[in-house]
Amino acid sequence: MSSRMPVVLSLLLFLAVGQAWAAGPDQASLRYYPSAGQVRADVEAAYRDSPPGEIDGRTAGRYLLLAGVLEASWGGKYGPKSFEHRAPARARELRDRYLQAYAAVRGGHWPAAQPECVGRTIDEQVAKRICARVNFMEAESRQQHDFAEVRQVAERYFPAKYQEDLVAHSPAKRLAEAKARAVQQREAEQRAADVRLAVARKEAMTRRLVAGGILFLLLVPLTILALLIAGARRRRRRTATTLTRIASIDDLHLFATSGRVIDVQRHTRTHVTTTTDNGYVHPDSYQSRAPSTTTTVSTTDHLALFVRTDDGRELQERFVDLPLAVRSGNRVAIVYGGDTRSRLGVAVAVVNMDTHDVAVDTRQAQGIASRLSLLKAACWGLAVAAAGAAVDLAAGIFVFTLPGLAFGFMVAMLLAFAWQRSLWANIRGQVQAYAQRLAATH
Q1: Looking at beta carbons, which pairs linking 328-332 to residues 24 or more positions away fall under 8 Å?
Q2: Cut 0.85: pTM above it
Q3: Furthest-apart CA pair in the chain: how many Å?
Q4: Residues β-bridged to residue 323
Q5: Distances (CA, A) of 409 to 141, 204, 385, 413, 414
Q6: In this predicted model, what pLDDT tens digit does every residue of 101-129 receive, in sequence order?
């Protein structure tokens, strides 16, 4: 029996605490709640000289304050529904009387609209203090939500031990808690925004570093190419005694030397390339393939012309795969192509004056074209890629660098192909036209 006593006492204590919690706050505090008439009399006595509408507003606000404190004291977090079940009869009676008195004030004392207040903003009406309706609403709200006003009501009607409870269950307390939560939420959102901003700045800095590194790697060869192009142009302007490859069709200089062929030497070179593919046996399927040999044969026709020119000189020119029939004794004109500054050139075509046949040595004609266009194309491609990296570096993003590299490579390839092929085609066309004019005039 003695061993069960502590358990029984614990159960009784638990039930007592539960009953006390179920009973809500101290019911003795209910006898300090003023009547509706006393509230009205106290407000009229304390604020008899207040602006119009303020007394009724303060009275209505106190009714709502006292009714709200009752509901919050016994209803807890579940509100009016819980109040109806948990609150004692006296608390429900007081609450109902306060709400009835509030409805009477609202119904019988609601200020009418004043002509001098119509068309003004709320702030202007509050500043004038003559608009009864605004004074009513402002006083009603301040009576419930201003800590000083709520504490004044608590000190007016309740002893010290109940005053803090009334303040704690008032709308002013809940409003302050809501504001505090809002402030905390804003601070948390601000901290989160600061963290996101710091991460974004760090990522932007990382992207800028990557884009800047790529830009630096692009600027180095771009600068070298620009210097090479500028140096080549300066050398072309200075050089006038040696043959210089042309970078533009405007620099092409064509001239011809005529004479009679005194000897023709032809020989053919054969190039044989053999590729052997070893056979194999697959280890799993035992499929086999026999060894195979591929042989590629190519030939080049080499032509050497010995010509005695009209001024008595003897010269020799060699050509490869020149489609021209010529023999000793034929009168020929050899076309030379070079640059306009040096006035020198290499043999690029032969005209048989007797048969009026024309043949262009394509390889030698293309050989007088400069590779400067390739450098210019590479320079443009690097410039396009560098522009994409520069945009990413300035904006702190990494969007245009990689596409700029790909697009710059395409630009370089297309420009190099187009410019060089165009120059070759123009040279061949000019040489062909010049040679045909020679054939037609002799």
Answers
A1: 328/261, 328/262, 328/263, 328/264, 329/260, 329/261, 330/260, 330/261, 330/354, 330/355, 331/258, 331/259, 331/260, 331/261, 331/442, 332/258, 332/259, 332/260, 332/261, 332/305, 332/307
A2: no
A3: 150
A4: none
A5: 72, 26, 8, 6, 9
A6: 999 988 877 777 777 777 777 777 777 77
